[in-house]
UniProtKB/TrEMBL annotation:
Protein name: SDR family oxidoreductase
Domain Ketoreductase: 11-185
Protein family: Belongs to the short-chain dehydrogenases/reductases (SDR) family.
Entry annotated with the keyword Transmembrane helix: no
InterPro entries per the UniProt record, alphabetical: KR_dom (IPR057326), NAD(P)-bd_dom_sf (IPR036291), Sc_DH/Rdtase_CS (IPR020904), SDR_fam (IPR002347)
UniProt keyword list: Oxidoreductase
Length: 263
């Protein structure tokens, strides 16, 4: 049956930034599809809640509390997965971000920090995970969480957007290096209702404006991204590598404008 192609039975995944939002939704979806997961974030209480959901799906979660802005801490997750579960099949790079800032206030250090947080951490996990994937399973799937801002220009997002664009192209180049045994793909979410959009969720006027600027007429839910990640991680996505799935409600322009003073 075609639905069997979306199963992850007895596979093992590492999901970073898994305490809430997109990472939590992805980890739970993987568990519901049959995988055990190593989940990592900074807040133990959040991770324990996600681990409970994984357990309710009949699978195992190993919690790692770490500062995932540190590429070395991220790289260690690959070893932890093999130590805890004996193999590693899937790695999801879901850490990153940078605060909006006017272009002329964005320093070279801001750009460097954004690149390290959004691209350097992903590369650290890829380098650590791939040898384990090849040794324990012979293949693997890597999923990077980019952003619609990596392709749509928006005011005040020079550091964040540039880093996410870099992550998207990193995905393409890594896919070429690691083909055919390890697939590397990315997801570029649009506006998803996580804690990062708490201000939007609590402001009816702003939310309505964003929904009206989105062709599908709504903001995304974390499960929209989790479903895409499951597709990419599972045999259903076995003929995709080097691709960036745009899960953004059809955006062709940013649906949120940061007000800035004129030059």
């Amino acid at each position: 049956m075609i639905l069997d192609q979306f199963r992850l039975d007895n596979r093992v995944a590492v999901v970073t930034g898994a305490g809430r939002g997109l990472g939590a939704a992805i980890a739970v979806a993987f568990a519901q599809a049959g995988a055990d997961v190593v989940i990592a974030a900074r807040t133990e209480a959040d991770l324990r809640g996600v681990a409970d959901q994984v357990g309710s799906a009949g699978r195992r979660a190993h919690v790692v509390v770490a500062d995932l802005a540190d590429p070395n801490a991220v790289a260690e997750l690959a070893d932890i997965a093999v130590q805890q579960f004996g193999r590693l099949d899937i790695a999801v790079n879901n850490v990153g971000g940078a605060l909006p800032k006017p272009l002329l206030d964005t320093t070279p250090d801001d750009l460097a920090e954004a690149f390290t947080f959004n691209v350097g951490t992903a590369h650290a996990l890829v380098r650590a995970a791939v040898p384990h994937m090849l040794a324990t399973t012979g293949a693997g799937s890597i999923i990077n969480i980019s952003s619609t801002m990596g392709r749509l220009p928006g005011r005040a997002f020079a550091a964040y957007a540039t880093a996410k664009a870099g992550l998207a192209h990193y995905t393409r180049t890594a896919a070429m290096d690691l083909s055919p045994r390890v697939r590397v793909n990315a997801i570029a979410p649009g506006s998803i209702l996580t804690s990062a959009l708490a201000v939007v969720a609590g402001n009816d006027q702003l939310r309505t404006q964003m929904e009206q600027a989105t062709p599908l007429g709504r903001l995304g839910d974390p499960t929209d991204i989790a479903a895409a990640a499951l597709y990419l991680a599972s045999p259903a996505g076995s003929f995709l590598t080097g691709k960036v799935l745009e899960v953004d409600g059809g955006l062709i322009a940013p649906n949120l404008t940061i007000p800035l003073p004129d030059l």
